[in-house]
Design brief:
Blueprint (H helix, E strand, L loop, with lengths): L1 E8 L7 E8 L10 E6 L2 E11 L14 E2 L8 H13 L4 H5 L13 H11 L19 H11 L5 E7 L5 H15 L4 E5 L6 H11 L5 E4 L5 H12 L5 E4 L11 E6 L17 H12 L2 E6 L4 H8 L4 E5 L11 E6 L11 H13 L2 E5 L8 E4 L16 E3 L4 E3 L6 E3 L12 E4 L3 H11 L5 E4 L9 H10 L5 E4 L12 E6 L13 H13 L15 E6 L5 H7 L3 H14 L7 E9 L2 H13 L7 E2 L3 E8 L2 E10 L2 H18 L4 E6 L5
Parallel strand pairs: 6-11, 6-12, 7-9, 7-10, 8-9, 10-11, 13-23, 14-21, 14-22, 20-21, 22-23
Antiparallel strand pairs: 1-2, 1-4, 3-4, 3-5, 15-19, 16-17, 17-18, 24-27, 24-28, 25-27, 26-27
Helix pairs in contact: 3-7, 4-5, 13-14
The structure holds adenosine-5'-triphosphate and zinc ion (ZN).
Length: 675
């Protein structure tokens, strides 16, 4: 028997690695990458062994023994440990806070019952993850698709590829055929495919299962049960799952034979985690591909300006699909409907109503896009001017009519709709503005015979309900679909020939410099849902109608022309001139306190505690939505034209901030998206 010292990362703030002693036979020492159970304070927790040695600075009387090593689980690879370490350093978080939450919960519990059960199930090969469908025919790729699939499938070494393909150009088919090439070449190859939204997994999962019957597919997203997550994670970790399909969290999956990464809709903001470890799954994916020297495909009809910039400078290889894949399918005709001239009634201009009626008569589907859920964003008293404000947030209480509730979308406060005005007693309270529920109500009156379906976060709360809703659209059981951004991306609605876009103007005048990039992408994506199938004999081109008060705005002119390239070029010039990302690198320090002054004071101290060449530390400002759930929030921006310089500064700065031991709660975000 001998002793070794295990350095173990635990999910705790600040220093997250601790030394423990472990007694074992010589030569049978645990390995880095294995999990171990240890006591920490008064608790017992599972940690990750990051190093195994013989020495420690911990005095002998304080050194504790580890309680157990999870020997039945093969170690996480050095490459995976390197990924977690990189993410921890880049996003300035302790390793344990990155590595452990990335593992299934059932691996981090005190007993190994769930782990043993999952291992047994996988050993028998009876895991639910194994596909058994029969193969369906592979469509013949068009020339551009074939070039792209071959370039991806045949790429050797680290090759970042931007697949710039218009909506409906058949990017999915390119991914699938490139996957087939990679899988055929290497009998162990694993491929990771990321989609931005959980609702897009079933469509792609179906395509993958049909194309690769018998191949084990693992899915990783937030709506799996813990048992499923464990099984799928293990299938990936043990190399059995060959294709892993997931949302952003799957970027931290353990994939010992990873040979290709695909990021679909790479521009999508949901690849950025918005709490805790605020990582960008897309950026980590590129890092992971470089580390493993494998190709990575970033696919989009509206690439992020970061990726577009890299493609322009030659860092990424650009592949283009300029036409729609289905023969005779063409991009829809986009028209602007001037709401100053054609005044909307119940939110709809007469032109849009006529177009909806025409589709109904032809038996075609329509989609109305409005990125605002609820009935009305606010209710007000016309007598005294009272409006429904949240008592805990700088926000309005949104009217949800079917549920008879006022709801704050930021702190979840719920109230019954008041019968009369809380300040003057007036009984005539009016909804102001329009959300999806109100548009739905208006449509039902306008088209009593139509089958109308609303898809938004409220209508799809129950597990499985979103999928059921999308399925009924695909089956043609819906005439008019109304929805938020949930319906805007990725879906291949074959019978849809009209898209109406309601009220996109608010985003034109946002203070956020990324707002126009996001709005443009959103409009192009939702417009891209129309006209994806071949037109009937003599059928007309599908249409996108945008209701706006600013019909001469250049952003809309670019949407009308489907001209991403020109629009993106213009934005990049602007960003360069104004020294904004991707030409500078940013980090955002946020602080929260009961009183705004406390948060600002902390940030001012932070601003003054360190200076460095080439680093600009701006003044603290309140966040646009200052108060959420009774907490005031402020932020401070740090910028540098050099990423390494910014990284070095942040490391030193954070050490100083931690020493301040302020009572103010603070957090740092690297490469923030919302400023
Ligand atoms: N070579 C092909 N021949 C015929 N049909 C094709 C071909 N390739 C793809 N398709 C069909 O074209 C349609 C659109 O493809 P897909 O959904 O992959 O587009 P996409 O590029 O991902 O679009 P979006 O960016 O809008 O998500 C699908 O119905 C698909 O089956
Ligand atoms: Zn609130």
């Amino acid at each position: 028997m001998t002793y070794c010292i295990l350095t173990i990362a635990l999910d705790t703030p600040l220093n997250s690695c601790f030394d423990y002693r472990w007694q074992c036979a010589a030569g049978a020492e645990p390995l880095a990458g294995q999990l171990a159970l240890v006591s920490f304070g008064r608790r017992e927790v599972v940690g990750l062994i990051v190093a195994v040695g013989t020495q420690t600075d911990v005095p002998a009387e304080k050194l504790k023994d580890a309680l157990a090593v999870r020997g039945q689980l093969s170690p996480l690879s050095p490459a995976w440990l390197a990924l977690a370490t990189f993410a921890a350093e880049y996003y300035q978080r302790p390793l344990g806070e990155v590595a452990l939450p990335g593992l299934p919960k059932n691996l981090r519990v005190l007993t190994t019952v769930a782990l043993d059960r999952a291992l047994k199930k996988l050993a028998k090969g009876t895991a639910a993850a194994a596909g058994d469908d029969t193969a369906v025919g592979t469509p013949v790729l068009n020339e551009a698709q074939q070039l792209a699939a071959d370039a991806i499938g045949g790429a050797d070494g680290f090759t970042p590829i931007l697949l710039f393909g218009v909506t409906g150009s058949g990017k999915t088919e390119v991914y699938l055929q490139a996957c087939a090439q990679v899988l055929a070449r290497d009998a162990r190859a694993q491929i990771l495919i990321l989609v931005p939204e959980i609702n897009l997994t079933p469509q792609l999962e179906g395509n993958i299962r049909a194309r690769f019957p018998g191949l084990m597919l693992a899915t990783l997203h937030s709506s799996l049960s813990e048992g499923e997550r464990m099984l799928h994670w293990l299938a990936a970790h043990q190399g059995q799952a060959r294709i892993i399909l997931g949302t952003r969290l799957s970027i931290l999956a353990s994939l010992p034979h990873l040979r290709l990464i695909v990021i679909d809709e790479e521009h999508d903001p949901s690849y950025k985690q918005q709490e805790g470890l605020r990582y960008s799954a897309r950026d980590l994916a590129v890092w992971r591909a470089r580390q493993l020297a494998i190709p990575i495909v970033l696919g989009s009809a509206t690439p992020s300006l970061e990726s577009w910039h890299h493609a322009g400078s030659g860092r990424y290889r650009k592949l283009e699909l300029r036409e729609r894949a289905v023969k005779d399918a063409v991009l829809p005709r986009v028209k602007l409907l001037d709401m100053e001239k054609d005044r909307p009634k119940d939110g709809l201009t007469s032109h849009l109503v006529a177009a909806l009626r025409q589709r109904m008569e032809r038996g075609e589907q329509s989609l109305l896009f409005l990125n605002r859920r609820g009935y009305a964003p606010v209710i007000c008293c016309e007598a005294c001017g009272w409006i429904s404000e949240c008592t805990r947030c700088t926000a309005h209480m949104v009217l949800h009519k079917p549920e008879h509730r006022l709801r704050c979308h930021h702190c979840s406060l719920e109230l019954r709709i008041p019968r009369n005005c809380p300040t003057c007693g007036n009984v005539d309270l009016q909804p102001l503005g329009r959300g999806t529920q109100r548009v739905e109500e208006g449509l039902q009156q306008l088209f009593p015979e139509a089958r109308i379906l609303r898809i938004d976060a409220d209508s799809t709360r129950k597990k499985g309900s979103a999928q059921a809703a999308f399925d009924s659209v695909h089956r043609g059981e819906v005439d008019i679909l109304i929805g938020t951004q949930m319906v805007a991306k990725g879906h291949d609605f074959k019978k849809l020939t009209l898209v109406g876009i309601l009220n996109p103007d608010t985003a034109l005048f946002s203070h956020d410099y990324r707002a126009s990039e996001r709005l443009f992408a959103q409009l192009m994506q939702v417009a891209g849902r129309a006209g994806r199938a071949a037109r009937n004999e003599g059928g007309s081109v599908s249409e996108v109608l945008v209701q706006t008060r600013y019909a001469s705005h250049p952003l809309y002119a670019a949407v009308v022309k489907h001209d991403y390239e020109r629009f993106a070029g213009g934005l990049l010039d602007e960003r360069k001139g104004a020294a904004l990302p991707p030409f500078v690198y940013q980090a955002l320090l946020r602080a929260e306190a009961r009183e705004l002054a406390g948060a600002i004071e902390f940030l001012a101290q932070a601003r003054d505690c360190l200076a460095a060449d080439g680093i600009t530390v701006h003044d603290p400002i309140p966040m646009t939505m200052t108060r959420v759930h009774n907490v005031d929030r402020a932020q401070l921006l740090v910028e540098s034209p050099s990423r390494p310089a910014l990284q070095a500064f942040l490391k030193e700065w954070l050490a100083l901030l931690r020493e301040m031991k302020s009572r103010v709660k603070w957090s740092l975000e690297v490469d923030p998206l919302d400023i």
